[in-house]
Design goal:
With about 500 residues, this protein is α+β, with helices and mostly antiparallel strands. The protein has helices spanning about 10-15, 45-50, 60-65, 75-90, 115-130, 145-150, 165, 180-185, 195, 200-210, 210-220, 255-270, 285-290, 310-320, 360-370, 425-430, and strands at about 5, 30, 40-45, 70, 95-100, 100-105, 135-140, 235-245, 270-285, 295-305, 330-340, 375-380, 390-395, 400-405, 415-420, 435-445, 450-460, 465-470, 480-485. The protein starts with a strand and ends with a strand. The relative contact order is 0.08.
């Protein structure tokens, strides 16, 4: 087995700061804990340049940098971010698990699919950084060893072999062991994995507990280390708090793209495509109190299930362009309202044969730009009568609008008249040439719309190819002729 551990050293800060572009100028920002005398949990680069350090009292940080922005730590947002990152890891491996402040995943079965270990790790780590999170990685034959390597931060990897010997110089603090046991061993001068692993097992178990000894064996690969697999949630819902209020809709695109990347990973991990999405923009609290609703909502549907981030982002950008902000935006939330199974795409057999990113369907662009009610989808309807065989469906699912012809094997015109037009006298005055037919359509007796017609493909005296029928509802063979459609 080949395990990778992903550690996120600045997660408390990243959940707030990742809405900013990497090149944007960042004001000093600190994340602080709770309590009467809160301390700094994390600080960005601008705050560190001002002398602020992790663990410093917040009052001292404000004395060093009076203008520093401060936000309270959001543990729920950190847990949600870990879940989203674990979902992203599942696009590279069938097995991923949460391990306190890290994610561990068995990448062994996926190495050939992604072109080897180097390419897989580069894609996985690069994808995490593209989502706005700082990350450290470690690779080892066991998950606990991989976590320890990630915490060491030196970029080392352990291949198959004597795992215990490779772990020997690492501090015990990197293995997530009991703090009291670590303090007991540190008092005796035992601070590394190798020093603890060489101690007699019986005495070590009596002083530090059997769980401590079992952890050493799991890290070295001498005991199994089963992990609870992470399962993506059944529905996608993610939010992103902005570090500063945004007044312009166009400035939200980068932050929205962060959420779209998470959505695409969730869809891929679950083998789904999204058909309906909901976007919510929460407003600045001071201004939102005077509004009827504290959020601006935008809902829209797609013509077909999709999980391509470029497709989804294009539609969202068009939809955002129509949003009028009643107040500055302080946060963004994205959620799925309807999904459907979507099969994966096969890779090309020949080098360079990979298809480009799929283009955004015209119907999705029009819906996003003009609104759902401005675009209708033509859907078939189970009825033999041509004028009722197809209907225009709104994105909400209700069939409305002018009935349209069904697409069946028999000849059907491109343009169907709204109502059949009588050809009274025209057939007799100027001869029409019957090319195909008759096709008998007899239906509708149960709902009062009874039809009994013989349809023909005919050529008019002026050369038009038309779809005409003779009405036999009276049971005679000399019924009236009607024009019902024209061929292109």
């Amino acid at each position: 087995m080949r395990w990778i551990a992903l550690l996120f050293p600045s997660l408390p800060l990243d959940v707030f700061a990742r809405a900013l572009r990497p090149g944007d100028a960042r004001a000093p920002l600190v994340v602080h804990g709770d309590g009467r005398a809160p301390r700094v949990v994390a600080a960005n680069a601008a705050a560190r340049e001002a002398g602020i350090r992790d663990g410093m009292p917040l009052a001292a940080a404000l004395a060093l940098c009076p203008g520093v922005a401060q936000v309270a730590r959001d543990v729920a947002a950190e847990d949600a971010a870990l879940a989203q990152l674990a979902t992203f890891a599942l696009t590279f491996t069938p097995a991923a698990s949460l391990a306190e402040d890290a994610i561990v995943a068995d990448i062994g079965p996926s190495l050939r699919l992604f072109g080897g270990e180097e390419k897989l790790v580069a894609s996985l780590v690069g994808g995490v950084r593209e989502r706005g999170f700082a990350v450290r990685s470690g690779l080892a034959p066991t998950p606990l060893a991989a976590v320890a390597l990630a915490r060491s931060g030196d970029g080392r990897r352990i291949d198959d072999g004597d795992v215990a010997a490779a772990l020997a110089p690492l501090p015990l603090a990197h293995f997530g062991l009991d703090a009291d046991a670590l303090a007991t061993l540190a008092a005796a001068g035992v601070r590394t994995f190798g020093a603890a692993d060489r101690l007699p097992r019986g005495g070590l178990a009596r002083r530090c507990g059997r769980a401590f000894v079992a952890a050493l064996d799991r890290a070295a690969g001498r005991a199994s280390d089963p992990r609870v697999p992470f399962l993506p949630p059944p529905q996608f819902a993610a939010k992103l708090e902005l570090p500063a209020n945004v007044h312009d809709v166009a400035a939200l695109a980068f932050a929205v793209n962060r959420l779209v990347q998470e959505l695409a990973s969730w869809l891929l991990a679950r083998g789904l495509g999204v058909t309906e999405l909901a976007l919510a923009l929460s407003h600045e609290r001071a201004l939102a109190r005077s509004l009827d609703s504290p959020c601006t909502h935008a809902r829209f549907a797609l013509a077909a299930p999709s999980r391509t981030s470029a497709h989804l982002m294009h539609v969202l950008r068009e939809r955002l362009a129509r949003v009028a902000l009643p107040a500055p935006v302080a946060g963004i939330a994205l959620a799925t309202e309807a999904v459907a199974p979507l099969a994966g795409r096969n890779h090309a057999l020949l080098p360079g044969g990979e298809a480009d990113a799929p283009e955004v369907p015209l119907v999705d662009r029009l819906r996003a730009r003009l609104g759902d009610d401005a675009v209708r989808l033509v859907v078939p309807h189970a009825d033999h009568r041509p004028e009722r065989a197809m209907r225009a469906s709104s994105p909400g699912g209700g069939a409305t609008g002018t009935p349209l012809p069904a697409a069946i094997e028999a000849p059907r015109p491109v343009w169907l008249l709204r109502e059949p037009r009588p050809l009274a006298g025209l057939i007799e005055a100027q001869p029409w040439v019957l090319r195909e037919g008759p096709e008998r359509i007899e239906s509708g007796w149960w709902d009062g719309g009874d039809v009994r017609r013989d349809y023909f493909v005919a050529e008019s005296p002026s050369g038009e190819v038309a779809w005409i029928f003779r009405d036999h509802r009276r049971g005679t063979d000399d019924g009236e002729w009607f024009l019902h459609g024209l061929f292109g």
